[in-house]
């Protein structure tokens, strides 16, 4: 019995030691610390059984049966206690095994997570290197874009100043165009008035031509009447002269007869004295009659010469009037041609005015479109400026975060939050690059708008030059019309003078040739104030 008890004690000691050493080795193998509080009762039991076994071996010879019985009771009690302790230790050992299995699973999961984190760390490191390269490229691009934005701002300010100047010029041009339209309307009204005046002048010219024809007829009739009157006067004067000469001849014959009779009666004494008293009176009368007849003939000859001179002057006047009428007809034909040319010029000016008006409407529409596009561009530029400022602030914040993370991650430990923030920053920079490309497109659109504005300026200058040419042409037409009016007034004055001079005057022949006084005739050149 003692041997069995000693064997069981040794076995218990070996089992407890094995369990203790096994747990320690397992913990050393796994490299982890396990709670040993649940194993301490086993240790105490092993130490107790070992100490008692040694005492029993030492006191086997000296022990007695009473002691053995007491020891057996104690041993039974201790065995029961050991069984209870073993069951508790077994349950604790099973729990420890379960914990170990759980810890192994956790270790496996943690190892897989570590591997994944290493892979992700390598990927993130590569991405970070790529992001750093992209960041440097984007920094260089942002610097270039900042320079370009400064240039674009300068260009935009210059373009805005040019647009303001162009708007002012356009307002001035619009005012000038309104004034030009008013002048064109006035010129059109004047042209209409001039056309009506020219039509009235045509009618007056036709009336004047008819009057000139009538005057020519009257002049021809007056010429014929004057010639007939002069011929009748000459015939009468010739008849009177013949009668006077016949009377003088008769008187001379009577005087001859008287002289012959005086010569025959010279021998008679008393009759001689009576005849001598009567005869001296008769020769004196005959001489007086002869003298009177000679004077009358001389006066008649002078009157005939003066009449011939007057006829020549009248013929000259008629020739001058015919020449002047021919010149008037030539001037009428020239005026008709000038009227045709003026009408053609007026039509061309109307066409140019219509083209200028259409161009002005087109330029106004294009300017309105450009104004709308300029306003939209200014709004977009303001929005892009605000977005640029926001992205600059965000980029500065990202740079600060990068510096902080670089300081915190000197041992190549990268956090996922940092990577996510960096990716968002890169995406924001990519969006900024897209917006900068939009800025470049806006710059091109602004350049195209400036080119269109320069074209509109050239068109407006051409329209102004055309308007100036039209005004000059109108002024030239007004000068021509004024000259035509002055010429018409002069012609009317000349025609009135011709009418006054062409009216036939009643011929009043002189009753006596001795009382005829020479007439003074005014030449046609003095009447018409013409320089021949």
TrEMBL record:
Keywords: Coiled coil. Residues 508-520 have a biased composition (Polar residues). GO terms for biological process: chloroplast accumulation movement; chloroplast avoidance movement. Residues 484-493 have a biased composition (Basic residues). InterPro entries: Web. The keyword Coiled coil applies. Residues 65-92, 156-258, 318-366 form a coiled coil. It comes from the Eukaryota. Residues 484-532 are annotated as: Disordered. GO terms for cellular component: cytosol. Pfam families: WEMBL (PF05701). Belongs to the WEB family. PANTHER family: EXPRESSED PROTEIN, HEAVY CHAIN, PUTATIVE, EXPRESSED-RELATED-RELATED. This is Uncharacterized protein.
């Amino acid at each position: 019995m003692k041997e069995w008890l000693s064997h069981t004690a040794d076995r218990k000691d070996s089992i407890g030691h094995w369990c203790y050493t096994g747990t320690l080795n397992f913990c050393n193998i796994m490299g982890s610390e396990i709670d040993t509080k649940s194993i301490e009762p086993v240790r105490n039991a092993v130490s107790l059984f070992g100490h008692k076994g040694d005492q029993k071996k030492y006191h086997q010879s000296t022990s007695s049966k009473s002691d053995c019985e007491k020891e057996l009771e104690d041993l039974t009690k201790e065995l029961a206690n050991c069984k209870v302790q073993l069951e508790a230790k077994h349950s604790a050992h099973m729990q420890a095994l379960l914990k170990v299995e759980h810890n192994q699973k956790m270790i496996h999961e943690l190892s897989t997570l570590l591997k994944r984190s290493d892979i992700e760390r390598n990927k993130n490191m590569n991405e970070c290197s790529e992001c750093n390269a992209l960041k440097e490229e984007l920094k260089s691009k942002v610097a270039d874009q900042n320079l370009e934005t400064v240039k674009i701002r300068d260009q935009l300010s210059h373009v805005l100043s040019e647009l303001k100047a162009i708007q002012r010029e356009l307002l001035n041009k619009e005012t000038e165009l309104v004034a030009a339209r008013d002048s064109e309307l006035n010129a059109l009204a004047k042209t209409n008035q001039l056309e009506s005046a020219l039509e009235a002048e045509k009618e007056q010219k036709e009336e004047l031509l008819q009057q000139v024809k009538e005057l020519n007829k009257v002049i021809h009739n007056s010429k014929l009447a004057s010639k007939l009157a002069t011929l009748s006067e000459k015939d009468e004067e010739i008849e009177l002269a013949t009668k006077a000469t016949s009377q003088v001849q008769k008187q001379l014959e009577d005087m001859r007869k008287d002289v012959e009779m005086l010569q025959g009666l010279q021998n008679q004494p008393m009759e001689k004295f009576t005849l001598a008293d009567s005869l001296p009176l008769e020769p004196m009368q005959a001489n007086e009659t002869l003298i009177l007849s000679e004077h009358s003939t001389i006066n008649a000859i002078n009157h005939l010469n003066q009449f011939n001179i007057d006829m020549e002057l009248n013929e000259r006047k008629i020739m001058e009037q015919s020449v002047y009428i021919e010149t008037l007809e030539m001037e009428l034909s020239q005026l008709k041609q000038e009227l045709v040319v003026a009408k053609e010029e007026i039509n061309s000016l109307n066409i140019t005015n219509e083209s200028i008006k259409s161009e002005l409407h087109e330029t106004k529409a294009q300017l309105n479109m450009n104004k709308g596009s300029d306003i939209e561009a200014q709004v977009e530029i303001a929005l892009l400026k605000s977005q640029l400022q926001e992205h600059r602030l965000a980029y500065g914040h990202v740079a600060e975060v990068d510096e902080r993370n670089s300081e915190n991650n000197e041992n190549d430990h990268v956090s996922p939050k940092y990577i996510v923030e960096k990716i968002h920053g890169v995406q924001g920079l990519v969006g900024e690059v897209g917006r900068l490309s939009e800025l470049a497109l806006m710059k091109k659109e602004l350049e195209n708008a400036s080119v269109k504005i320069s074209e509109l300026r050239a068109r407006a200058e051409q329209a102004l030059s055309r308007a100036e040419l039209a005004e000059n042409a109108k002024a030239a037409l007004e000068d021509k019309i004024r000259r035509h009016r002055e010429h018409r007034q002069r012609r009317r004055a000349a025609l009135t003078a011709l009418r006054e001079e062409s009216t036939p005057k009643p011929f009043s022949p002189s009753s006596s040739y001795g009382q005829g006084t020479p007439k003074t005739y005014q030449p046609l050149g003095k009447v018409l104030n013409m320089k021949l």
